[in-house]
User: What shape does this take?
Amino acid sequence: MQRDKFTRKAKYEGYFARSVYKLKDIQTKFKVIRAGDKVLDLGAAPGSWTQYVDELGAKVDAVDVNEVKFGNWIKVDIYSDSLFEKISKEYDIVLSDLAPKTVGIRTLDNEDSYDLSMKALEIAKKVLKKNGKFVCKIFQSEFSPKFVKEVKKTFFTTKIVKPVGSRKRSKEFYIVGLRKK
Ligand SMILES: C[S@@+](CC[C@H](N)C(=O)[O-])C[C@H]1O[C@@H](n2cnc3c(N)ncnc32)[C@H](O)[C@@H]1O
Assistant: This one.
């Protein structure tokens, strides 16, 4: 299979993954990250979002069970009780590009994606400052409306986006929460 243009572009521009162009598009549309912000990047490996957040002049903690090849890798499972001992108490932004290891059984994959996104929201509720921002991936499914509803309860403004770089055949979309209540 021929590699797509974003994979080639990422390699050429020195990013660890093509996913960087999704965050770049979200940033162009909503200006979520500013220089000096403190950012928590959940599901950060291999590290292209972390690279880009650093380029924008923000400080980033990168959480993943797998190696994040850039910046401050915090090796922990987001479901682990020790997570809150390893991360800071307050952030301006929580990003989540967490994705389950898909098994090809649609309902199971969708449920895993929903669980990860709900966990990311729970973490965001604990560590985000008032007026903080949230960017989170989820697979569109029978479960995703419930997640969107929860995000809407937590933020004054929410936006749904299928960013540039997200493959058309992928069911993923991103929700952006602006101004945490
Ligand atoms: C699509 S990748 C993230 C790509 C990343 N944003 C980048 O630009 O390089 C999703 C990541 O979620 C991580 N992940 C999935 N479940 C996790 C969990 N329970 N705890 C920590 N990380 C997890 C995976 O290890 C994987 O690296």
